[in-house]
Design a protein that fits this description.
By secondary structure, the protein is of the alpha+beta class. It is built from eight helices and 16 strands. The longest helix is centred in the middle third of the chain and has 18 residues. It starts with a strand and ends in an 8-residue tail after the last strand.
Length: 333
């Protein structure tokens, strides 16, 4: 039996023919940012937006929070002794991350960077995994109580405290692309970066945008060809899963999602989560946390929420794969 996985990408078909919008044309921009690709598809009477504009927009964000640019503000913060003055995008991301940290009781924590590095998921790959003593030593610098904002100054308690915004920045980047399009009078678009999506409006024929979700075949967590289509409407769709980014150790897959409480990779029944929320910064900020929470706690967290929802693939006792969806996940059939 085939189940839907959550690395999402978008799928757009249809004709431009109805509702008096035949003059609208389809435009597509593709580029590279934050160590991945991005794509914008929009409908307008003319090519209002250029790749140079979107490249410049995302480059400014990279200059702020990219761990791959040594001169970025986040790298300067990580090298600092007690903190630095940061810019507005950086501040927005940190503020949201701290909010999500509190909501998830510390299971989403941007100070996790030293753990990400020591497990081999940072810029430098490792030949071996850390031992218990190394993890314990690193945990002394982990925890969102070790950073705080005071105006535009981001403080930290010790030089060893370092942050990683990769778990939330791409969703925010999709939001920035969407906001830029709307400032230029474009209200029918999909903005995607690294598989994280921001969606607004419809196609000119009146059809909603359709999002394709990869499939999982049986017990094999390698995704199969496109299977399921959802119509999420306005909002954001992001994904987190263990089946793409992982390392092998002792015949087991080690997740790239680190539990900041234990210092070890998350290991539970969760395979992948697709999150719908009203904006990308929220959806992207929570998806890794739901993986760490596990199925029961995630369902409890989302059981009455309509402003955010999740489609979850998980492994049942005995090894079979199952799926479930919460009431707030839009466009599911």
């Amino acid at each position: 039996m085939r189940f839907v996985s959550v690395l999402v990408y978008f799928w757009m078909v249809g004709t431009i023919c109805a509702f008096g919008q035949a003059h609208l044309r389809r435009f597509q921009i593709e580029g590279y940012s934050q160590g991945t690709t991005y794509q914008v598809i929009y409908y307008a009477a003319d090519s209002i937006i250029t790749q140079k504009q979107t490249d410049n927009l995302l480059a400014r964000l990279d200059n702020s929070v990219s761990l791959y640019q040594p001169s970025s503000l986040i790298c300067k913060f990580n090298r600092s002794a007690r903190g630095i003055v940061i810019d507005e995008p950086f501040r927005i991301l940190v503020k949201k991350a701290l909010e999500i940290n509190r909501a998830t009781y510390g299971l989403v924590d941007i100070t996790v960077k030293p753990l990400v590095d020591v497990w081999g998921f940072g810029k430098k790959k490792r030949d071996s995994f850390p031992n218990a003593a190394q993890v314990k030593a690193i945990l002394k610098n982990i925890g969102s109580d070790k950073i705080w904002l005071q105006g535009n100054f981001l403080h930290k308690t010790a030089p060893g405290v370092q942050i990683d915004l990769n778990g939330i920045a791409q969703g925010y980047a999709a939001d920035l692309l969407g906001a830029f399009l709307e400032r230029n009078g474009i209200y029918n678009y999909i903005a995607e970066i690294g598989g994280e999506l921001r969606i607004k409006g419809r196609k000119p024929d009146g059809e909603p945008f359709k999002i394709g979700i990869e499939a999982i075949d049986g017990n094999d967590i390698n995704p199969s060809p496109l299977r399921k289509i959802i119509k999420p409407g306005n909002g954001a769709v992001t994904t987190s899963g263990n089946y793409r980014q992982h390392l092998e150790a002792g015949g087991k897959q080690i997740s790239h999602i680190i539990n900041p409480k234990t210092g070890y990779p998350a290991q539970n029944e969760m395979i992948s989560v697709t999150v719908w929320a009203q904006n990308g910064i929220t959806a992207d900020g929570y998806d890794n946390g739901f993986i760490t929470m596990g199925l029961k706690r995630t369902l409890l967290f989302l059981q009455k929420r309509t402003d955010m929802g999740a489609y979850i693939i998980y492994r049942k006792l005995g090894g079979t794969i199952a799926d479930t969806v919460t009431i707030g996940f839009k466009g599911y059939r």
